[in-house]
Amino acid sequence: MKKTFKTGNPYIWLTGGTLTISLLMIIGLVALIMFKGLGIFWPHNITRLMLHDNSAVLGEVAKREPIPNTNDSYRTKLKLGNRDIYGMDFKWFDDSTILSHDYPPTALTIERREWGNMYGFLKGIKHDNGIEPLSLTEMKPLLKESKSIYKKIRRIEKIDIGKINYKMEKYRLELKGLAKQSQTVSTRKKTVSINAKVEALDKLYRKKVDTLTNLYTSAKEHKVIIELADGSEEILPIFQIIRIYDPNQMGIYTKSCFYLIKFWEFVSAEPREANTEGGVFPAIFGTVTMVLIMSLAVTPLGVLTAVYLKEYTRDNVFSRIVRISVNNLAGVPSIVFGVFGLGFFIYFIGGGIDKLFFSEALPTPTFGTGGILWASLTLALLTVPVVVVATEEGISSVPKSLKEASYGLGATKFETLWKVTLPQATPGILTGMILAMARAAGEVAPLMITGVVKLAPSLPLDSYSPFIHLERKFMHLGFHIYDVGFQSPNVEAALPMVYTTTLILLMTVLVLNLVAIIVRNRLRKKYVTSAL
């Protein structure tokens, strides 16, 4: 036995086995997330259950399982939809209460802008004189027209009126600033000029509101009658319908195309209905932007600290204190960084910036409140130990002979550091960045008090000068998962969204890391070749 351990083979098997278990756990976790999350986009068949009490229900079968503490008894979980009518999205039915089930070919899934899906049968379009029969094919032009109106409404609300509001706020602050100055002739002329511009904008605003009112009136003209499983009828404005389809008549190819469209919509659209429907594009954009700003802040901070510790100071009391501080920083709970970011970045620095440059807007804060800049800097502080340690390791790995050759050729210490040491240590620095990016993308606690919100009205990047608005609040995939999973009023309906958003977060981190790994490998190859 002793001979076996002395050979070292058991340790090799132990490390190999541990690595295999770790990989299997990661693969299993990703597989579970994909299995639970990606099914949300598949158009499931609609089932009609006939119950023993002569009632009928319509919906998608979400789950079937044995009833706890009973023998040979099962129950079926049905996604009923029609939340505004039934007050719930899901309902369990004992199989013993089900008389029969079928898949009606004319059953429709109606995706609505509010209240989730509706399941039923299209009876016709509503007119003053009654109901005119309408097929799904005849419905498509009406739906197309409705989508066109919706796009116009969104454009006016978000772009046109948004631009007017932005300019009016800018002029309001200018007027406030002029009112504080001494009232000279020049000041009075500027005030009159700005008031004239504000009046013109106000007229334009009223015009846009009138256009919006007409569009909403036009949008509510067409209504369809939907017959539910129990025979009752519901009037549904076409404007409320996003998509209508008949999954029981769709083939595999049609369902696959539908699946891809829905997945693209998920990653490219804005969220709806308290984040439980729609897409996650603002959260993806906010996460990537925050990680990039954090990388720009943490890299020089971490690299300069590591260079100082490794190249410009000896092993003395001061350097030991700095090293101990950096190492201890890695063990500080992330929420503590959030509290520090709130106090130092937001209240102290942000409040100071507001007093100096945005005094007209006070008491409404500009930088003195949570925003993507402060959240990124807080995460830069949180991840700086990772970059410092990785950079020190990278500098240590540079062959001593290269430095001596540089000194031998007459280069100074700084020239050797800039031309030889740092380029050779770049792969190590990028390794630290990769680890920092991965941690920053997954952190949520410090963001909750430094700038992340449930729903951000605008992205940090837009067409208004200065185009990048670092003071704005933002959405984050990690916080989106927390919000949908634990704050949603309808947790069962939001559960698949949690898994899908988790998968998107993993993919975002993977893409960011892949880019950094490709750059690192190219640099490593370049400097290895140079060394040869």
UniProtKB/TrEMBL annotation:
It is found in: Cell membrane. The keyword Membrane applies. Keywords: Cell membrane, Membrane, Transmembrane, Transmembrane helix, Transport. PROSITE patterns: ABC_TM1. The keyword Iron-sulfur does not apply. It holds the Pfam family BPD_transp_1. GO terms for biological process: phosphate ion transmembrane transport. Belongs to the binding-protein-dependent transport system permease family. CysTW subfamily. This is Phosphate transport system permease protein PstA. It comes from Candidatus Scalindua japonica.
